[in-house]
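Reply to dn_fold:

You asked what the input looked like. This is it:
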Amino acid sequence: MISTFINNNKLSDDFRKIAESYFIPLAEEIRSHHIGAEKTYCVGINGSQGSGKSTLSAFLKVYLTETYNMNVVVMSLDDFYFSRIERQIVAADVHPLFTTRGVPGTHNMRHAKMVMSDLKHQQPTTIPRFDKATDNPHPASAWTKVSSAADVVIFEGWCWGVNPQSAEQLIQPINEFETIEDKNAHWRNHANLQLSLHYQPLYSLMNMWVMLKAPSFEDVYAWRLEQEKKLSAATDKVKKTDNTKQSGIMNEQQIQRFIQHYQRLTEHALETLPSSCDHVFELNSDRAITAHKLKEDHA
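and this is what came back:
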């Protein structure tokens, strides 16, 4: 099963040791908790861009499905991004920076809440899917339909699980981007308010929290650049058969600016989230796991 997963996801064989040492035991723990709960069990996964959230989520799904025939639903906070037009409306009403997807306030959390409620109550639902290559949601016909009760729900996201900052923390800009483009701090204050109002209340729906902890924000740029190159290669293949497909692929300079939207909450997460997560997998710059800490380790 691991070999097939490695091949299908174009991973190096190093993933085998990671899976056997860390991810399979995590999957077994999730299964054990689900059996004890006798209801849908929800796992929240946090990690910065490029940290491996999608790979971990996919592996847990494949392992639990193939090993125990469990119904596992995977959803990403990214899939709830507003469309370009919707973000432009928010930008016109609040601040121009909300045109760019990323921070709280650029996701349709009303829809996320509805989907989570359906899954928790074991009701049929449909999960949206977002196309980063076009910077818009996929057509509704391509969304994921869930028709039977989910045993496990995995919800991953770059700021999923992160709590709001204090008013004092929001005063000083954290990078050149905020200094120039958010002089009055209106953008970051509004994003923080959205986090408090529409994201934090959903955290209680998670039964377990897992974090893939980057060594620092400096590594995120390299990881995000790698993601974009993979996205570009995949998009090029699609464009050969669909000339109408618009590309939202970014160059290195655009990525450098783009990730600065994420810096404040990413660094806030690295500082504050480990103490409240059930499992923290500490990564090095190559995304190898260097330590695994459990919640009781922080007690």
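Confidence is low (pLDDT under 50) at residues 243-247.
Hope that clears it up.
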